């Protein structure tokens, strides 16, 4: 696995993954995102020093994306999306680990938070296997998990 910072050239790829029905089901917003809205969002993310958007590749093929957004203090919220074609291949743990490695090295990230939809058992299992633990009561249907990076 190798993570690289996303660029505007990744817009179509990322939008396709974002608008996939299974991705939308697990997201805070289940709405389909229009291209112009996505381009504005991507431009803002790429320009924001408090956000890191990575595309993770396996054998030079993009298989997922990991995003880190600075929260209060030294905590960063993580979001992960696997490419639809990459699901069921056992890649999610490696994608998350590579994202955490890059965030730690490039930004000094030490505390990571994850909001996991209560109905998303696969995502909950991913984060729990990766060492995340309950940090707070669920809010709005999302479990609140936390991990301190080594």
Automatic annotation (TrEMBL):
Gene3D superfamilies, alphabetized: 3.40.630.30
Domain N-acetyltransferase positions: 1-150
PANTHER family linked to this entry: AMINOALKYLPHOSPHONATE N-ACETYLTRANSFERASE-RELATED-RELATED (PTHR43877)
Organism this protein belongs to: Amycolatopsis melonis
PROSITE patterns to which the protein is assigned, alphabetical: GNAT (PS51186)
Name of the protein this chain belongs to: GNAT family N-acetyltransferase
InterPro entries xref list: Acyl_CoA_acyltransferase, Bact_Acetyltransf, GNAT_dom
Keyword hit for tRNA-binding: no
Keyword annotations from UniProtKB, A to Z: Acyltransferase, Transferase
């Amino acid at each position: 696995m190798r993570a690289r910072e996303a660029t505007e050239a990744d817009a179509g790829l990322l939008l396709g993954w974002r608008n996939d029905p299974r991705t939308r089901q697990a997201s805070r917003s289940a709405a389909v995102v229009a291209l112009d809205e996505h381009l504005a969002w991507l431009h803002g993310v790429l320009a924001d020093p408090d956000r890191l958007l990575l595309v993770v590749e396996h054998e030079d093929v993009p298989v997922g994306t990991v995003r880190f957004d600075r929260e209060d203090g030294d905590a960063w919220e993580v979001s992960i999306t696997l490419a639809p074609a990459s699901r069921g291949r056992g890649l999610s743990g490696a994608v998350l680990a590579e994202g955490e490695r890059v965030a730690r090295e490039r930004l000094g990230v030490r505390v990571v938070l994850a909001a996991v939809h209560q109905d998303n058992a696969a995502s909950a299992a991913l984060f729990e296997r990766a060492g995340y633990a309950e940090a707070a009561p669920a809010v709005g249907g999302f479990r609140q998990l936390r991990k301190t990076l080594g």
